[in-house]
């Protein structure tokens, strides 16, 4: 039986009356919940505001200038042009001067040989828009850090944080002067730690970056990466992008390494690099599992250099690195950066895995200069083979049968090789375990060598 029209109209009126009431109740509840969340979110928003208020007065714009000449019109004379802009932040200030940390690539340019050379002039713009000329104090190409100073005192210096305590997911802000538009703050999280992009590989640099999705663009380089407490946990250094601008892949130098380098540059105008005297190799997950460790990538001691702190402390080839000063060793880059961040003469505690058991060794680092002196001393007692046409001298020692020949001397102008490197193979000759294996190279016009340097293996071609 079909319903009558009055019944249908009554049903439709009841439905129409009920819907707005239900929707209104839902919207009211949603609005109340939103207000409660807004009050909680306001606390986080206020924290971001306070970070800006505390840190921003320490952040500066660093501008580089060059003097250019018109070769077609000598009478026109010279003129200054701005060639770049980056960021920096105040790390120390007294009544007369202030010192600023920034990236080396912001304040130095590269010549054709890849050497760092200063720009003609540095100009710093302060938070209050004052502009002053700056002077070079020191720089370090391997960490991409530099310190400059300005004749202005009484500026607020930043507070350092502990980058070893940084964790994925925590809030951060990137402060600086991007793209020439002026001061800017961007917010994000720590996306990863111990990242390596290969950007410093050509100079044997140290990479154990903090990765963040906080916007880092050209001009942000040298600015601080700040935690929610207003402490500096990194120095914004580079990005990975197909466009040249931010896509959420920004990288910062950890504050512990940056602070260590900055303190040396302030005191000595150069870095006193810590060294322990080991060469490293990556350990595949399957090999780690066979050694009784979790099936994950690990780092193995490949060589212990005689007469070095590691040798004196009883570190042995084949040991697997578990921790350094209580921090888990995540990669070759991670270990190198931690040693580089360690003060010379301050004890380093290594946790090692040896023969199925955990052992601990305490090491007091020495400077790389002292390490080189000890290497030279050891080389003087080692059999040698001079390859004059390649500017190279190889030696044979008690580890050559396993680790190849050792580089004893390198002539000026020979790039990418250092004393103490090991040469494992020559592409045509095969393994180089004795000087006799390498003697045919004395008559060669070209040599393709497999080299181990700082735990990295690469091929290098030398020609007369």
Features:
464 residues; Thrombin, subunit H; 4 domains; 9 helices; seven-stranded antiparallel beta sheet; six-stranded antiparallel beta barrel; 23% helix; alpha+beta; 38% strand; 30 strands
How large is the count of helical segments? 9
Number of strands: 30
Amount of beta strand: 35-45%
Number of domains: 4
- Sheet with most strands: 7 strands, antiparallel
N→C terminal distance: 106 Å
* CATH fold group of the largest domain: Thrombin, subunit H
CATH superfamily of the largest domain: Trypsin-like serine proteases
- The rounded Rg comes to 29 Å
Shape descriptor reads globular
Q: Which residues form runs of ≥5 with pLDDT under 50? A: 5-17
Structural class: alpha+beta
Helix residue percentage: 10-25%
**CATH structural class of the largest domain:** Mainly Beta
Q: What's the overall average pLDDT, rounded?
A: 88
Architecture of the largest domain in CATH?
A: Beta Barrel
Describe this structure in words.
This protein is an alpha+beta fold and 464 residues long. The chain folds into four domains: 57-70 and 81-150, Thrombin, subunit H, CATH 2.40.10.10; 159-268, Trypsin-like serine proteases (Thrombin, subunit H); 274-369, Roll (Pdz3 Domain); 382-463, Pdz3 Domain (Roll). The protein is built from nine helices and 30 strands. A hairpin with a 7-residue loop joins strand 10 (171-176) and strand 11 (184-195). The chain is globular, with a radius of gyration of 29 Å. Residues 5-17 have low confidence and may be disordered.
Short description:
The chain is α+β, with helices and mostly antiparallel strands and 464 residues long. The chain has helices spanning 5-55, 104-107, 255-268, 285-290, 309-313, 332-340, 368-379, 400-403, 435-438, and strands at residues 59-69, 78-93, 98-102, 108-110, 116-118, 121-125, 131-140, 145-150, 159-160, 171-176, 184-195, 209-212, 224-227, 231-239, 250-254, 274-275, 278-283, 298-304, 320-324, 327-328, 348-354, 357-363, 366-367, 383-387, 392-396, 405-410, 422-426, 430-431, 446-453, 456-463.
């Amino acid at each position: 039986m079909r319903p009558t029209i009055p019944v249908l109209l009554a049903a439709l009126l009841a439905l129409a009356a009920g819907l707005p009431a239900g929707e209104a109740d839902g919207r009211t509840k949603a609005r109340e919940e939103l207000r409660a969340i807004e009050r909680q979110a306001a606390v986080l928003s206020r924290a971001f505001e306070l970070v800006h208020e505390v840190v921003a007065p320490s952040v500066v714009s660093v501008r580089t200038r060059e003097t250019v000449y018109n070769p077609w019109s000598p009478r026109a004379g010279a003129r200054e042009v701005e060639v770049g802009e980056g960021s920096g932040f105040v790390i120390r200030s007294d009544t007369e001067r202030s010192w600023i940390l920034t990236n080396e690539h912001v304040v130095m340019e590269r010549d054709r040989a890849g050497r760092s050379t200063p720009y003609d002039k540095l100009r710093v713009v302060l938070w209050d828009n004052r502009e002053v000329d700056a002077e070079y104090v020191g720089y370090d190409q391997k960490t991409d850090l530099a310190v400059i100073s300005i004749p202005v005192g009484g500026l607020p210096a930043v507070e350092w944080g502990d980058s070893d305590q940084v964790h994925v997911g925590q809030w951060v802000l990137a402060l600086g002067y991007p793209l020439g538009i002026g001061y800017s703050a961007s917010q994000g999280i720590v996306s990863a730690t111990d990242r390596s992009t290969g950007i410093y590989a050509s100079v044997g640099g140290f990479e154990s970056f903090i990765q963040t999705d906080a916007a880092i663009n050209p001009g942000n380089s040298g600015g601080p990466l700040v935690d929610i407490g207003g402490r500096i946990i990194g120095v914004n250094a580079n990005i990975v992008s197909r466009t040249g601008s931010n896509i959420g892949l920004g990288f910062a130098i950890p504050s512990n390494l940056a602070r260590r380098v900055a303190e040396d540059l302030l005191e000595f105008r150069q870095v006193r690099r810590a060294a322990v005297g080991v060469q490293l190799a990556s350990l595949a997950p399957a090999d780690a599992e066979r050694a009784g460790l979790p099936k994950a990538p690990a780092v193995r001691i490949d060589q212990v250099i005689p007469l070095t702190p590691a040798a004196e402390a009883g570190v042995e080839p084949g040991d697997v690195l578990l921790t350094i000063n209580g921090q888990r060793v995540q990669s070759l880059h991670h270990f190198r950066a931690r040693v580089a961040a360690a003060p010379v003469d301050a004890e380093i505690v290594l946790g090692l895995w040896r023969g199925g058991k955990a052992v601990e060794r305490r090491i007091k680092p020495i400077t790389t200069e002292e390490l080189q002196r000890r290497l030279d001393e050891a080389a003087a007692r080692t059999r040698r083979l001079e390859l004059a046409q390649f500017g190279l001298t190889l030696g044979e020692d008690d580890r050559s049968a396993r680790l190849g020949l050792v580089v004893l001397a390198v002539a000026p102008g020979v790039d990418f090789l250092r004393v103490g490197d090991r040469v494992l193979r020559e592409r045509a000759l095969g393994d180089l375990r004795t000087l006799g294996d390498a003697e045919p190279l004395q008559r060669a016009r070209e040599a393709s060598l497999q080299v181990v340097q700082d735990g990295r293996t690469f091929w290098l071609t030398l020609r007369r």
